[in-house]
Amino acid sequence: MNWDETTDSPAAGAERLVGSVADREDQAVEAALRPKDLGEFIGQEKVREQLDLVLRAARARGATADHVLLSGAPGLGKTTLSMIIAAEMGAPIRITSGPAIQHAGDLAAILSSLQEGEVLFLDEIHRMSRPAEEMLYMAMEDFRVDVIVGKGPGATAIPLELPPFTLVGATTRAGLLPPPLRDRFGFTAHMEFYEPAELERVVHRSAQLLDVEIEADGAAEIAGRSRGTPRIANRLLRRVRDYAQVKADGLITRDIAGAALAVYEVDPRGLDRLDRAVLTALLKLFGGGPVGLSTLAVAVGEERETVEEVAEPFLVREGLLARTPRGRVATPAAWAHLGLTPPGPRGGGTGGNGQGDLFGA
């Protein structure tokens, strides 16, 4: 599999209009649209309130802020919050990622060059190598690392004092973090998916910064198809903007937004081609399931990992698909969404052609 550098999702996710992986265009636009302080940051009310207290208290003490762990799905604002933390503390920020730190020496080089009070943002922290992770324990707790010089019996540990710094770790899989690392963070927060009303505010703010004319119902249409993720909302806004400039007078209305997203195959609930292909195969070929993941992946012509990591999470969250010990099962909402009628009661409870028992989950 070809994996993206900063995510655990297959690289196929980066190619989807509704994928939460950031591509180069997203990164450039996000830099321009990114809020500069907590007051501008939309959504995540509890996290903002708690983080504001942590930062204000640190400033009042004249100390560096506690280490911060941010968890949640891609595209919810973890990187943005790390930059806001640095801005609120008046400190520079250093950005790296877990996959980039494969050896303890890589981490030692970064830590030894930090300035006092600097913020170190470590994205996908759960993917850091174990030796580097163990070095990070001492650095976070005692602001010290032991650099090993030499090999074998003659190896010597040289203690290296570090200036106080704030580590901001981000992860999409908090459960993969070992407890000793997780416990060393003074503040932890989980980023939730956004409500449509919050995403409407995101779309209006981004449209203003991009100098795009948009009506309230047009923003609502985009927000409703954004899968609870600001990054997706901004990406859809850009594509709708393109459509409005070419096919209309540049003003984004509900009709224009709907027509534009229909061109890009994003339906009113936010499902794209892959999502609908999975549901269609599950309903039409296997009678709603249960059916094994491998069988379902073959039916839609995708890799097993792509279906499991890219399509399924959203379908499960939307209540359109369920994972069971015997395989994947469509819910009544899935039948309704595709406008299909579920079959009547079936004998034996195997579902479809009974392949759920044969192939399993």
TrEMBL record:
Database matches in SMART domains: AAA (SM00382)
CDD domains cross-referenced by the UniProt entry: AAA
Catalysed transformations (reactions): ATP + H2O = ADP + phosphate + H(+)
BP GO terms, sorted: DNA recombination; DNA repair
Residues that, per the record, bind Mg(2+): T79
Binding, DNA: R304, R323, R328
Enzyme Commission number(s): 3.6.4.-
Signal peptide (from-to): none
EC class: hydrolase
GO molecular function, one term: ATP hydrolysis activity
Comp. bias regions, Gly residues: 346-361
Positions of region (Disordered): 337-361
Binding of ATP, residues: L33, R34, G75, K78, T79, T80, E141, D142, F143, R184, Y194, R231
Domain AAA+ ATPase intervals: 64-195
Gene Ontology CC, one term: Holliday junction resolvase complex
Chain residue ranges for the region called Small ATPAse domain (RuvB-S): 195-265
InterPro entries xrefs: AAA+_ATPase, AAA_lid_4, DNA_helicase_Holl-junc_RuvB, P-loop_NTPase, RuvB-like_N, RuvB_wg_C, WH-like_DNA-bd_sf, WH_DNA-bd_sf
Subcellular location: Cytoplasm
Job description of the protein: The RuvA-RuvB-RuvC complex processes Holliday junction (HJ) DNA during genetic recombination and DNA repair, while the RuvA-RuvB complex plays an important role in the rescue of blocked DNA replication forks via replication fork reversal (RFR). RuvA specifically binds to HJ cruciform DNA, conferring on it an open structure. The RuvB hexamer acts as an ATP-dependent pump, pulling dsDNA into and through the RuvAB complex. RuvB forms 2 homohexamers on either side of HJ DNA bound by 1 or 2 RuvA tetramers; 4 subunits per hexamer contact DNA at a time.
PANTHER family, A to Z: HOLLIDAY JUNCTION BRANCH MIGRATION COMPLEX SUBUNIT RUVB, PTHR42848
Comment on protein domains: Has 3 domains, the large (RuvB-L) and small ATPase (RuvB-S) domains and the C-terminal head (RuvB-H) domain. The head domain binds DNA, while the ATPase domains jointly bind ATP, ADP or are empty depending on the state of the subunit in the translocation cycle. During a single DNA translocation step the structure of each domain remains the same, but their relative positions change.
Subunit structure: Homohexamer. Forms an RuvA(8)-RuvB(12)-Holliday junction (HJ) complex. HJ DNA is sandwiched between 2 RuvA tetramers; dsDNA enters through RuvA and exits via RuvB. An RuvB hexamer assembles on each DNA strand where it exits the tetramer. Each RuvB hexamer is contacted by two RuvA subunits (via domain III) on 2 adjacent RuvB subunits; this complex drives branch migration. In the full resolvosome a probable DNA-RuvA(4)-RuvB(12)-RuvC(2) complex forms which resolves the HJ.
Family statement drawn from the similarity comment of this UniProt entry: Belongs to the RuvB family.
Protein name in the entry: Holliday junction branch migration complex subunit RuvB
Gene name of the record: ruvB
